[in-house]
Amino acid sequence: xxxxxxxxxxxxxxxxxxxxxxxxxxxxxxxxxxxxxxxxxxxxxxxxxxxxxxxxxxxxxxxxxxxxxxxxxxxxxxxxxxxxxxxxxxxxxxxxxxxxxxxxxxxxxxxxxxxxxxxxxxxxxxxxxxxxxxxxxxxxxxxxxxxxxxxxxxxxxxxxxxxxxxxxxxxxxxxxxxxxxxxxxxxxxxxxxxxxxxxxxxxxxxxxxxxxxxxxxxxxxxxxxxxxxxxxxxxxxxxxxxxxxxxxxxxxxxxxxxxxxxxxxxxxxxxxxxxxxxxxxxxxxxxxxxxxxxxxxxxxxxxxxxxxxxxxxxxxxxxxxxxxxxxxxxxxxxxxxx
Length: 338
Known about the structure:
Radius of gyration: 19 Å
Strand content: 15-25%
């Protein structure tokens, strides 16, 4: 297939691009290489793609999602079979500081992707959503079959909006679309604004780490390669209208149009303090911990019910937090300390 991967120089996007190239697909990779975090890390991921086996089937396009003309040109000039849309303005706390960036990228940018898919008969749009859409809900594990209409950050609200926007295009134009609600993705080549990255940097520098909610967080940490395996399985299986959908009693996970949302996580929540403990063991250093209260926009726990993804795609993550943190540390030390 010829697949458009947006956010190709990003954390999950770069791994997804490698995976598609490894199996023989052609990939058009889009990224704007912005400075939300260190652009040199994004460039290093991109360089790694361009020097890998299969790079002759990779084309990079530098463009911004909010640039309608640029996105239109990508779809018009290339025959794209399917789209993996991972580019977005990420970060919960940053959305409190720079809200307009989120609407430009996550709402306007997503509309441009939807329009490209609509007008060029794309077979399947797979896009990133987030566990943050569950917001203030406390029933665990989070299930796609319960509502997700109480987000507590603008970032989460934009992602929930993406799910609804995709549904409208699936309904109006029969565009097959699948949203994936990611649960705390981590691993090598990760984002510097994420906890594991921040913890490792400070521990190695002998600086204290900030531990929010006094360490009482629990997260469904999911290793990046497990996430990518799920993305590719979903990409290969466009949704069909659900035959048992009841319009009198609608199920928020399915529809009578070709649209679907899935949780994608490890389904094994880990205490934040255990996560830190594993990192300390891998680094051979003990962290000085600055215990702090819950931050605005944070939720105390996440846990994914991934039974639908397992049933429909035979999806089963296999990486333990001990294995995943070790892989991250090995990469981090090689990338920054060598």
